[in-house]
Amino acid sequence: MSSSNAQTKWGQFIPLVTVFFFWGFVAASNDILIPVFKTAFNLEQWQSQLVSVAFYIAYTVGSLMYIGISAATKKDIVERLGYKNSLALGVLISALGTLLFYPADETGSFALMRSGLFIVGLGFSLQQTVANPLAIALGPVATGSQRLTLAGGINNFGTTIGPLLVSFAIFGSASAASTTVDINSVKAPYLILGLAFVLVAVFLKFSSLPNHPEAEVEEEKTLDNFVKQRKSALQYPQLILGMVAIFLYVGVEVSTASNLPAYLEEDLGFATSAVAPYVSLYWASLMIGRWGGAVEAFTSDKNLLVLLKIVAPYLAFGVFLGVNAFMGHDLAPFYVYAAIVVVLIAADFASKGNPANMLGYFSILGIVALIIGMLTEGDISIYAFTSVGLFCSTLWPCIFTLAVSGLGKQTTQGSNFLVMMIMGGGLVSLAQGTVAGIIGIHSSYIVGVVCFAYLAFYAFTVKGILSRQGISFGRVSGGGH
To answer: Among residues 259, 117, 286, 278, which one has the least CA distance to residue 193?
Structure first.
């Protein structure tokens, strides 16, 4: 870690990362709710994916509401309320969403439960707007990526344990092997989650987080003279194509996981209560990839960097094994996954940290993984589908970096457009669920192949677009959405 990192305000940063944890915890836990709701409400596969739609479409609606309210009041919401107050408000909004699980349970309403998740997502949208720039502001701009990477690691820890804890709350211990789905069991964990949100909001309100942080300002860099600044971010082809890429990236990341329980149950005969470790493995795969991709933010020593790029992914894999051991799950089926991590490490070295190369290589590997999953059965297909998490792990910072490069003063506007496209997580999941109803859940992963094919196209096309604007890249590091 660089010496400049000593200037990071850790006493303020630590309270901030609590929200990153909950983003991951809730997003991954949705994959446990999907099969529970499908059975309890007798839903078709595409209908069960409305859980993802409700949650992820809230990010887009929240962004549009933010823009509209700021325009109507002629002052940015965060500028008006302050960072700390806005963050606490976002957490309280999410807490209100969890309260809907009580009347939803009493009335047996799937619509109310989706509405609850939608409101939770609205709160997360405001939190995302505040937390990412605040993490950068809590110290030197030069070390901002380090703080975002660390926050992303906390987010991935939430995605790893979320499915396990929610499954335990609904079904009981792993040894119980319950096959009974009782919608009443969903109410308690989400009301407890709501209480946790309230406590976090109070904690944030009285924490040392600044309301109006004084961010270190970097010297503005100008592009080559022949690159003309445009009036709107939407005039940049790298952004337009990048918006589609973010939509499809979040889409394939979420839909692969959200349809995995149906594949395990329908094609492989898993009990609903037994799918949690595999959902956890999928989301842990993102943690494995991101830990490996983040190490270069902490050292410039080449020899140490090579070592950490090999060790860090296996440390993350160890976290997954440790959490599952603690929850009482059998670890024997997962040891072989260590061999698949080698493919991730090799691709990481091959890309040399270049965002376009990394996006291209990892997208191709994602296609290969999905095709193998569709052509095989049993454990091989499971590991092929879960390995998609490995190959999605570093795509967010790659796409984001490529899409906003060269935007100059339009960068903030471009970033907002990209965040709106997180809705792909819900809509692509719905598309795959619909396809599953036609050709079967096993073959429905062809939807993911199409998504990765576009990402590979974007990776190699954007090189030329940026090259014509005089922009080239070295390395990139970062976390996830």
So the answer is: 117
